[in-house]
Amino acid sequence: xxxxxxxxxxxxxxxxxxxxxxxxxxxxxxxxxxxxxxxxxxxxxxxxxxxxxxxxxxxxxxxxxxxxxxxxxxxxxxxxxxxxxxxxxxxxxxxxxxxxxxxxxxxxxxxxxxxxxxxxxxxxxxxxxxxxxxxxxxxxxxxxxxxxxxxxxxxxxxxxxxxxxxxxxxxxxxxxxxxxxxxxxxxxxxxxxxxxxxxxxxxxxxxxxxxxxxxxxxxxxxxxxxxxxxxxxxxx
Length: 236
Hints:
This protein is an alpha+beta fold. 27% of the residues lie in helices and 26% in strands.
């Protein structure tokens, strides 16, 4: 006999929320939209929605992100399940958060304006609905951990980049200034960055040389990035 429902059990909704971090070459930012319905209509929100009966969590996250922002083919990792009883004032809803790191300039043309998506610097985030701030804080902690032990930050950079750009990204991740000389020394000591002949001259007259990640060497010398910034030198 086929059983359609478990008798005497309470029902609750299952949702997903997408946390998209991006780097524009200067600042680390978070993508937010304006919520389109009550409650909290018009307030800033992560990209979220209800999982449909015919889709798994990953497909739901990809669908919702595309519907609300236009972004697609974005790799997202599952972060955590948020299930506080009163997290949603309408119905009992458990949300599984997903996070991603992208190069803003690479995806700029995909963004649509249906839900007024906007990139906010992490230092200047507006008030968010429900427990979305808690989700963002957890995602930031995971990002800091990964950045210390894995070159995940290169996913947010263009193919070629300057050392000041790389330093700005790390400073955005850790929320602190890093000593310029120590940072450059540690980066170059890995031997995994290839100096280019051309310079980026928009930021200064002197310009800064571009670098590329040597992906072939990286596969061989992965350990060179372990403890990349184990104890950042903070500038007061």
